[in-house]
Amino acid sequence: MQLEKLQAFVLSGSDYGESDRVVSLFTLEHGRIRGFARGARNSRKRFGPALEAFARIHLQLARKDGLSSLREADVMTLYTGIRSKLDGIAHALYACELVDSITPEGQPLPRLYRLLATYLERLDSGTADEAGRRMFEINLLNILGYRPRLESCSRCGSVFDGQGGLIQSGGELACRFCAASGLPIATLTLRELTSCLSTSRFGAVRFSGAGLSQAGGLLDEIIAAHTGRTLKSLEFLRQTR
What we know:
alpha+beta, CATH 2.40.50.140
């Protein structure tokens, strides 16, 4: 079987047997795939620290449906700045678990790969905050086609006025004529989220205090609807905030 040379992020991993490891990878070339690394816990020469969570690596593998066979991996970066702080680790693990949980297997998503790279670089610089997390999430949802319509009601199509909208189950946004209840989200917050889609620079959009909370409520609702479960890394993230 022909070997492929890829670049990837390690999303997660688990031990298998006495010396092997199964890893979930987000590759530039093929999107999310799973790989089996035989003897990874014993072979420092072939893998070393390359299979650590959120490491960015070059790898060689024999790709096939289900579980590919990893042969070698070399570290591009371990993001040592992230690993030196608990809040950085928490945000990085969350981002990787989100990508692992919400992306289809075997579908190339180069824009999302670049987004994850940019976000991890931001975390590596020492900036791990709620605004960066929310910018990562709204851009991820946009790339995957899961982003809600931010400028108008999803039911009647009317443009949100100064009162904003109401967040419905699953993250749907409705106006106050179409929905009797729901978490309110201000027009300013919707504009702030829209601004996140027009820049690739983390930190370029400044959320208001209320806006950050409202944006979080909307994004949490959408993400829960598409992942179908509570991400394990969220509890660790909450503990470090």
